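User: Could you check the structure of this?
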Amino acid sequence: MLTRVKSGHFRTLLLRATMVAACAALSCGVGLAAEEVSLTFQEKNGRYNIEGSFQVEADPHTAWSVLSDYDHIPQFVHNMKLSHIQIREGNDVLLHQVAEGGFLFFTQRVRLFLYIQETPDKTIAFKDMAHKDFKVYKGSWTITPDSGGGPLNITYQLEADLNFSAPAFIAGDVMSGGAKDLLKSVRKEILQRQAQVSPTPSLPVKLTQAPHTTPEAVSLR
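Assistant: Sure, the predicted structure tokens are below.
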């Protein structure tokens, strides 16, 4: 049984803990409101569904140049260790990728052979054909211009079923964290490339008035 002094001390600690929790909740709320990307993550019977999106001030061609720059993905997505086009026939691509993700002591390297179908400047649909580390791994990227001329909306969708054993909470954290990092990295690269291709504003042209010419000053020869 708590004494009166101990009870008062306990209530003080409880109040402080409540205030700290409230501040943490408010901080989380501010952080979420300022997030550059949005992400929803669902897991059912070992199958994961991820949907993410972000908006970016860029033209569709620049966004496409980043999303379809398969061979250089490791340069701007840190957990992508290898990405190399094996075959390209028109808008059909076979892409070999090796990625690495981890959570605390758990690290997993995954290998993918993606069959990609492109609709230039619009969509990239992909599907793993090797099934080495995933029973199912398929999804898409979609570029949607704003009808009012505002920022582009880029959406990402992934359905995955792991082919290796890992605790569900670890696998979920790795996949959701990896997807969020991917979206942030792609958005950052699009912004950087857009800054490089945007035309430099031209300097204002100073107009000067031509000297007035009278009919008497014109000599016909």
